[in-house]
Amino acid sequence: MAGVSRALVTLWGKRHSDFPRPGDDDRFALADVLRWLESRQAPARTRDTSARADTYADRVRLNLAAAAAVEPPGLQLPGDGRTAQADNLTLRLTLIFLGTRNPQARAELDRLIPPDLSALGARWLLTQIAAAAARTARQDGVRPEIFAALQRLAPERVSQVRGIMARCAGLGAADVQAVADEYETALPSGSFLTPRAVAALLAEALMDGTAESIYDPYLRGGELLAAAAAAAPDKVSLHGRGAQPAALSLSGVTLLARGETADLRDAEQGFPPAVTHILANPPFGGDSWIDQLPDTEWRPFPAPPARSAFRWLLHCLQRLRDGGRIAIIMPPTAATSANTRERGIRRHLIDYSMVEAVIALPSGLYAGRHIATSIWIVRHPPGSDQPILFVDATHARTPDDRPISLDEARHTDILRAWRSFLIDRDARRPHPGSERFSVAIPKTDIRTDICSLNPAEYVRRRIEPPSAGRHDTRTGLHQLYQRSFDCQLSADEATALLSEPSGARMVDIGDVCAVKTGYPYSRLPAKDRSDEGVPILLPRHLRDGRIVADDPPYAPHHLAAGLVTYEVRTGDVLCVRTGALTPPALARRADDGRLVSTNLLRLRVHDTDVLDPYLLYAYLRMVTQTKMTTFARPTATAYIAAAHIAQTKIPLPPPHQQQAIAAALRALDDEVAAARALAVEATSARDAIIRKLF
């Protein structure tokens, strides 16, 4: 590696008493040799003119770097299966943090020479990265606990770590958000970050020209403070409190990597000074430091019950300056709880016009969690009667039956409703709201029996007065009648183009499809299911030809990793294997990655140019209640074997006729869907007119 002869090494050993000695295995320790060679200048005539190699030690490093190839970027280091994904993200965040806060230390890491190139050297290099990051964090007053996660990684060779380092070499503050987004799905059960869309909504709704200081009473990863700093028109001071050292550490490192400094305190330290604005996503239903506060802490409000969400809300009010404003995530139960003390707190908040808005969010926004949440915007008493804005953003759904997320359009709708409400309120004019989405309710109209702050009770029951000469409750039906008529015409035209299939042949389904049963029960018993992870599809999720996976059980990620062969892909057809033989369903893109349970069969077309999946789905739907019932084994519960389905004959027309047939079948399904939608809305219009009449 040094480019010298064996004779010269022997000569050095004889002339210099401090020359390193080999160990029992006749091998020299690389670190010892490098220290000694550091003072030995290489002859100028032997130096590489294309690289700086003044000493023999420099020459060794250059040759080692050439020998230790960097593996392609994008790889994940192996580690503890439960935390490997999160630990890899921590490594990436650590390298970005060093690159932004201590570029010199980051450059020195690239020049380090591990003791060997195997797993030992890789772990040694991770230790050096963690140590450099810890020193840098302490200099900025941030706890270093997060870097301990690097010790759980188990790379097999130095080149793997070098690959990650190379990948992160060009990353900076602008890339921290991408890492934070991935943390949402990587963190272990029980800990999660506020999704970027929710954090941005909280910050953009709250930040205005009066923002000077921000407080987060329950730090997760610093995402709320980062969002507030990004949305504030001017520089603001950031304050946070956390009960977990890892959360404090992650928050501090994340903020520093973004270029933001913050006053972060643990539960043992005092509270920060009063602030102008507060963003909060506290835990609900679990023990925390806030439950240790005495009941006298909440005056003049009634003392909230233990583990109540109102403890966090009232704490935020106490940390707020006069004229300040809070945006806090609250559970839906907080709006309607029958608990006497919680109802009393709501009454106090309403009577003093402290609640400005309640925004109900879609469920499923949090990775792996189908929980519903809402945003409450609260301020110190303004001293005058003010209406409350209710926004119901929960009821709309996407075409594939997934709950709608806070995409850009939904985000914009909520902010527009909030800002237009403020403009109308400040101008002292009535706020019209938006049909089926938002409404401003005077506090005198709030239900006095339970003081409900549930948006659904106010937004959905509102009926606008009809326009002059028009019955507005039926106006919307015109478009549905027109769509139903258009779908009828399309179905007529599509079916008219059909002719008797020519050249169709009968084939076994098993010849053109892979028929596979769901995962064996022994691989994932019911007791091992969880409330998060990969959704599991059950027979009850097959409805009207679609997969409607509402409230499914979940396979934990570490178990789901071994069940990938039972995942669903777009175009798969699912059939019931045991139980009531309901019609099959066709998987859509939104269903990709879900797991097929024991009680289902999955049919996957080998070649979609040979058989259109829609044709397969329609054919199986036709024979479900006839032919398939003959396959059901005579047991207490109907049971169909995969082999029976595979042996079922299906007509296989030529590809061009398959396309025409599939188009007709889709048109017929659209006709049915349009007719159902019309029936639902016509029923709703009838009921609305009855309410008006009475």
Question: How would you describe what is shown here?
Answer:
- Strand 4, helix 12 and strand 5 form a beta-alpha-beta unit.
- Helix 4 runs antiparallel to helix 8.
- The chain has a nine-stranded mixed beta sheet with strand order 3-2-1-4-5-7-6-8-9, sandwiched between helices. Strands 11-19-16-17 form a four-stranded antiparallel beta sheet. The protein has a three-stranded mixed beta sheet with strand order 15-12-18.
- The longest helix has 39 residues.
- It has 694 residues and is α/β, with parallel strands linked by helices.
- Helix content is 40%, strand content 13%.
- The termini are far apart.
Shape: flat
Q: Could you tell me the number of beta strands?
A: 20
Helix content: 25-40%
Structural class by SSE content? alpha/beta
Strand order of the largest sheet: 3-2-1-4-5-7-6-8-9
Radius of gyration: 33 Å
Main sheet specs: 9 strands, mixed
Mean pLDDT across residues: 83
Task: Please outline the helices and strands.
Elements: H1 6-15, H2 30-37, H3 56-67, H4 84-101, H5 103-111, H6 119-139, H7 158-168, H8 176-186, H9 196-206, E1 213-216, H10 223-231, E2 237-242, H11 245-257, E3 263-266, E4 275-280, H12 309-318, E5 320-330, H13 333-336, H14 340-351, E6 355-360, E7 374-379, E8 388-392, H15 408-426, E9 438-441, H16 455-459, H17 472-475, H18 477-496, E10 505-508, H19 509-512, E11 513-517, E12 534-537, E13 542-543, E14 546-547, E15 554-555, H20 557-560, E16 573-576, E17 585-586, E18 595-596, E19 600-605, H21 613-623, H22 627-631, H23 642-646, E20 649-652, H24 655-693
Parallel strand pairs: 1-2, 1-4, 2-3, 4-5, 6-8, 12-18
Antiparallel strand pairs: 5-7, 6-7, 8-9, 10-20, 11-19, 12-15, 13-14, 16-17, 16-19
